[in-house]
Fold this sequence. Notes:
Layout: E1 19-24, E2 27-39, E3 45-51, H1 72-82, E4 93-94, H2 104-113, E5 117-120, H3 139-164, E6 170-175, H4 181-191, E7 196-200, H5 207-211, E8 220-225, H6 228-240, E9 248-252, E10 259-260, H7 277-287, E11 293-296, H8 302-310, E12 315-318, H9 320-323, H10 332-339, E13 346-349, E14 358-361, H11 370-378, H12 391-394, H13 404-413, H14 426-429, H15 447-456
Parallel strand pairs: 4-12, 5-6, 6-7, 7-8, 8-9, 9-11, 11-12
Antiparallel strand pairs: 1-2, 2-3, 10-14, 13-14
The structure holds flavin mononucleotide.
Amino acid sequence: MPRTCARSEHGAYQKNLPLSRVWVRGEKRNVIHLGKTEFSAEGTCTLWCGMLPSSPVPEIPASLRANAFSNPEDKCAYLKEELLTGKVPWPMVMGGMGTGFSGPAAVRAVTRFGGIGTLTAAASGFPLRLRPEKLAEGKEERRLQFHEESRILLARQIAGIREEFPNEIVAANVMDILEDSHGTVDAIIASGGIDLVKIGAGLPRWAPERFAQADAKHVLYGVIVSSRTAAELVLRAAHKKGGRAPDFFYVELPQYAGGHLGQPKLEFVNDAQMHDPQRIRDEIRELTPDTPVLLGGGIGYRDQISRALGMGYQGVVMGTRCLLTQESGMPDETIRSKYLDPAVRTIEDARSPTDYPARRLDTPLTSPTIENMRAAMRYCVSCLKPGKCKYPETGMQEGGAYCIARDLAETWEGRTDGVLFTGSQRDTMLSDSLYHGQNGDRRVPTMEEALTYAFTHDAPPGARGLPT
Ligand SMILES: Cc1cc2nc3c(=O)[nH]c(=O)nc-3n(C[C@H](O)[C@H](O)[C@H](O)COP(=O)(O)O)c2cc1C
C-alpha cells in the first residue's frame, strides 16, 4: 500500500535522517526523528519527533531594497565601493525578459520597490513584426529597418525611465544570439542611461574588449553563465586580449529558470547535481575571488533568497515572480488564463529556433502549415545571428521550431496559445494567496505586492525552485 508521510525538506521521510525540517501549522520547524514511525491503515504516517526551538529564516537584509540615491555621484560610489566589492548584498535584480516582458513599466515598478529593474534590450523592435504593412520588401532592408527601429525604441525607453529615476541603478539585458547584439550594446553605452548590462544567450567573448573601450567606462557588465566553464572562457578572453573582465557574473540555474536555458542538452536541463549552485559559486570564487556573483532561477520566496545569500552569492535575480504582475509586458489575461491555470503544464523542449532548450507553458503553438511558414518568412527580420535560426529547416515538421520573432511578438500583443516562457517555480507560485482574489477568482498582483510577498513568505513544501 502506498504510504504518505509528513514532508521533510527532502519531500519524503528518509529512515536514517536524524535531523529534518517539517511544516507545523504553516511554519517550518527543525525536528529530530526519535526513531518511531506509525502507519495507519489509511496509509498516513505519524513520525515521532523531538521539536527543536524554531530557527526563523534570517531577515532579508535591507540592502536588497535599497536603490534610491540623491545624486549620480552617490550611486556611482555605492556601485563601485560597495556592490562591486561584495561588501553588501545587492538590491534584488529583475531578470531581463524579452521581448517586451521586462519593459519600462516593469523596470519602474521594480525600481520603486528598491530593486534593480532590467530593461530587456533583446530585439526591442519586435512589435514592428505586428505591423507587416510597415515592413520593407527586401530581406536585407527589413533586417536593417528592424535594427534601426530596435535602437530608436530602446533609446526612447531608457530616456523615459531616466525622467522618473535620474539617480537610481538601472540595468539592461542583451541576448548574444541576436544578430544585432553588438549594435545593441553600442546603443546602450551611447544612451548614457544604463548602469549595468547583463549579457546572456551565448558566450560574449567579444565583451571584454568592447567594455575596455573608453566610451564604455561608465557601464558595468556581467555575463550570464550556468557553469564554471562558461565563466572561465569569458575570463580567458578578457586576459588574452587585455580586455576588461566582467564586473559580475549571474549564475542562472537551468533546472529552474524561465525561457532559454544555459544547458545546451535538453536531457540535462533538470540535472540539479550538474548545476549545483553551491559548487558553481565556489568554483567561480576560485577563478576570480572578488567578483560579485548573482544567483537566479527558482528564487521567488524569502527562504530561497536567504539560501542564495548563505551560499555566498551577492544577490538574487527573479524572473517569473516579476513576470506574473500587472506591470510586466505579459498581458493580464494571459497570466490569468494560462499562467495561473494549474491544468496548463510547465515543460522544457528544444523547439526554440535558437537550439537552446527552453522552459515554457505547454501551449499548441502555431501550426506547421505552409501558409504559416510563408507568412513568417515573408516578414522575417533576421533576428538571430546568421546560421543560428533553425525555423526555416524544421518549422514545417511536427514538433519543429517556432518563429520566435512572430510568436513572442504575438504573445506580447495578447495571443494566449503561442510561446509563453516561464520558470519551473510558476507551478508552486500559482497556489500563493497572492494570485487568488476574495471570490476565489484568479488575480494578477502589482509588482510591489509580488515582491513584498517574495520577501515575507517562505517556499511551501515541495516547491519547484531552489531548495532551502
Ligand atoms: C518570459 C521570460 C522571458 C525571458 N527572457 C529572457 C531574455 O530575453 N534574456 C535573458 O537573458 N533571460 C531571459 N529570461 C530569463 C530571466 O531573465 C531569468 O534569468 C530567469 O527567469 C530566472 O528564473 P526564475 O524565472 O525562476 O526567476 C526570461 C524568462 C522569462 C520567464
